[in-house]
Q: What sequence folds into this?
């Protein structure tokens, strides 16, 4: 029996509703519509119910006067004139400050401890191991309370402050250091600093190229140090020291003026850094042990010393293993900073979902905003780490 | 965790259905009153080592349970922090909030809550170390002050320092416990809260005698029971339970003599104890509701003296909280 084979170049026409492409798009549109409807219904319902319960809703509170005081503000904030919105920014900046510094300190400490744990020196390895096992097995909240109380109890009263010559005070109200005030002409110093940094990078590139060509090494570190620090210092001297200081002064109750580091901030930063460092140390150790032993042996046989071997051979390969779990630790640190409530540090949760929520009573809005903020911070951190990860990832050809 | 639970409950209520106007029915069906209480404030709400709760605020909850169930112990106490208390009430986790809460206009309006009355007229004060040699709150310029978060106290503090052109360094804590501990550790020069709270917290300091309470009272803090808006029946019951306690003191009815008073011929007393009229039924309560309260809990004066007055370690003077005919401002509308 003869069969009618399609003769034209176009395939047999299928009804559009049987086209897999059209179908999959239709399903997705339908799903989006259902989810959208559910979200809309939930919001609508919440607004209705809040109205029926006579609870205020909406975001009108954002511009209302806050009326409360915040102990640490990176931007100006006054209880009498600033709004709830301003309080939000104050809290957010405080969160970012402690999380940012915490990530830096935890990374430095974590890398040192992680490498130390693999040291051939028995004592160093055991001390690092003891640190990791103690710190990561105690609840963070407990550690924060410990640090806060340790800081408060160990430091002297205001009237018996440690005083360092040059206007540095340390007591149980915090650490007070002189605040630099930049006068006219300080711009030159900044220009010199920028020039120094650019110069250092240029020197590094040049030295590297030369080493590749001739094998000769240049003193990159000391040259960079001289350019980055020496150049601005010389400019500072030439410009006639256009720099003043606002010195802290002991008042009747407190030390006034200067830069103030609150004990709440110090305790939170300490606690978060030390706790997260223990986890980072384990991540680093895992990364280093994942690099085959043959790599180290090969480096040694080429005559490289232990330091350059770690820096040039082992760490670059270990970083590929380290980065993804390290990102999780950074996210954990940021989210753990919300434990600030327990020790009175004014972070976003303490200020915004604490006082602002209570004063306005608008739990739904305030909690939604706060969750959105933490989601944004976390996603941004992940994004940066993923970009870095893809740069150092093994390029497969 | 508690905070998260109450927020979750709140979200569920908001999303699922509005809180019902059926509190009375819910409470009687349950056979138990859920009372939002302080949990850490001596004289107002504090459980002892056996888990028995006492305090002036706690007594109002006990009185509500007495009127409903003829058993003052049918109360489940939910300890709440200042910043979680309203969410817990809005979400229906508690039926009534008695946590030394100040009556303000915004709490009456935008929080969807109603204050039923005032069980303690308070005002905010300051406590400082004697060694500072401070005699007035106006000398506190530049001082660090420890304060609890989510309170009217926090706002009054900022207002007072601003109005008197003084510099303030406030350190805010989530609970009174933490704030007091930090003050005790020397983190702050002063601790501020309602004056009654200052007397209670002073007892817990390492060396209570090293601290004085400054004479200034910087605000009006009428503390009272709070219920959800939109349930008038429940609102009326909670309101009249407190009034019954105040009226009883005025009429000279106490837990000691309430049985004899049943035979009284004084029409005011007859209406109170229910031998005349049906004032209890009108409220949706049994005829002997007021007698139950006085028998099981006592009148306002008894409760005051037992919890915060001369019969307690706090020894707070009754001051404004005396009855209106004894020089105070405690006054209850008549039962008739």
A:
């Amino acid at each position: 029996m003869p069969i009618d084979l399609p003769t034209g170049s176009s395939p047999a026409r299928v009804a559009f509703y049987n086209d897999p492409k059209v179908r999959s798009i239709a399903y997705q549109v339908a799903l989006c519509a259902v989810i959208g409807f559910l979200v809309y219904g939930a919001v609508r319902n919440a607004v209705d119910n809040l109205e029926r319960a006579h609870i205020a809703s909406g975001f009108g509170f954002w511009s209302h006067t806050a009326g409360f005081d915040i102990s640490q503000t990176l931007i100006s904030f006054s209880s009498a004139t600033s709004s709830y919105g301003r309080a939000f920014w104050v809290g957010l900046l405080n969160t970012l400050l402690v999380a940012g510094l915490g990530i830096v300190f935890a990374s430095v400490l974590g890398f040192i401890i992680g490498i130390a744990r693999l040291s051939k020196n028995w004592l160093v390895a055991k001390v690092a191991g003891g640190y990791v096992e103690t710190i990561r097995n105690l609840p963070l909240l407990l550690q924060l309370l410990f640090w806060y109380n340790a800081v408060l109890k160990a430091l002297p009263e205001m009237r018996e402050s440690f005083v360092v010559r040059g206007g540095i005070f340390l007591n149980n109200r915090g650490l007070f250091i002189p605040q630099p005030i930049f006068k006219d002409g300080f711009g030159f110093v900044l220009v010199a600093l920028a020039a120094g940094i650019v110069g250092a990078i240029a020197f590094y590139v040049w030295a590297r190229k030369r080493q590749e060509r001739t094998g000769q090494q240049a003193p990159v570190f000391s040259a960079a140090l001289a350019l980055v620090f020496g150049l601005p210092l010389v400019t500072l001297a030439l410009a006639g020291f256009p720099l003043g200081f606002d010195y802290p002064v002991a008042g009747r109750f407190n030390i006034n003026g200067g830069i103030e580091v609150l004990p709440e901030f110090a305790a939170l930063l300490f606690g978060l850094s030390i706790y997260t460092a223990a986890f980072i140390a384990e991540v680093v150790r895992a990364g280093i042990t994942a690099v085959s032993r043959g790599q180290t042996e090969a480096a040694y046989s080429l005559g490289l010393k232990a330091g350059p071997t770690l820096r040039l051979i082992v760490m670059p390969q270990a970083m590929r293993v380290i980065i993804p779990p390290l990102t999780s630790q950074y996210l954990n640190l940021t989210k753990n900073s919300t434990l600030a409530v327990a020790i009175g540090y004014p972070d976003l949760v303490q200020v915004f979902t604490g006082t602002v929520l209570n004063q306005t009573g608008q739990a739904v809005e305030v909690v939604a905003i706060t969750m959105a903020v933490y989601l944004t911070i976390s996603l941004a951190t992940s994004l940066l780490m993923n970009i870095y990860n893809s740069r150092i990832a093994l390029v497969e050809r | 965790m508690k905070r998260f639970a109450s927020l979750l409950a709140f979200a569920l209520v908001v999303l699922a259905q509005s809180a019902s106007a059926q509190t009375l029915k819910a409470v009687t069906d349950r056979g138990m009153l859920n009372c939002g209480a302080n949990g850490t404030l001596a004289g107002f709400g504090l459980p002892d080592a056996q888990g028995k709760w006492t305090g002036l605020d706690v007594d109002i909850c006990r009185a509500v349970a007495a009127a409903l169930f003829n058993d003052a112990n049918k109360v489940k106490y939910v300890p709440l922090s200042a910043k979680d208390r309203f969410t817990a009430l809005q979400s229906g986790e508690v039926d009534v909030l008695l946590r030394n809460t100040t009556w303000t206009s915004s709490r009456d309006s935008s929080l969807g809550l109603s204050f039923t009355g005032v069980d303690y007229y308070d005002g905010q004060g300051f406590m400082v170390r004697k060694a500072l040699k401070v005699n007035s709150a106006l000398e506190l310029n530049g001082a660090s002050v420890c304060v609890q978060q989510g309170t009217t106290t926090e706002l009054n503090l900022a207002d007072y320092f601003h109005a008197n052109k003084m510099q303030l360094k406030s350190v805010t804590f989530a609970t009174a416990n933490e704030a007091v501990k930090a003050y005790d550790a020397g983190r702050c020069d002063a601790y501020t809260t309602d004056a009654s709270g200052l007397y209670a917290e002073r007892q817990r300091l390492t060396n209570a005698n090293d601290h004085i309470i400054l004479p200034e009272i910087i605000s009006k803090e009428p503390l009272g029971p709070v219920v959800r808006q939109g349930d008038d029946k429940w609102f009326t019951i909670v309101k009249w339970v407190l009034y019954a306690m105040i009226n009883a003191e005025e009429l000279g009815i106490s837990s000691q003599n309430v049985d004899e008073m049943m035979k009284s011929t004084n029409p005011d007393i007859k209406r109170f104890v229910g031998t005349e009229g049906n004032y209890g039924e009108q409220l949706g309560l049994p005829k002997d509701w007021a007698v139950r309260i006085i028998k099981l809990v006592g009148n306002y004066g008894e409760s005051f003296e037992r919890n915060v007055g001369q019969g307690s370690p706090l020894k707070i003077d009754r001051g404004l909280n005396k009855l209106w005919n004894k020089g105070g401002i405690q006054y209850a509308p008549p039962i008739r």
User: Anything to note?
Assistant: The radius of gyration of chain A is 29 Å. The longest strand of chain A covers residues 168-171.
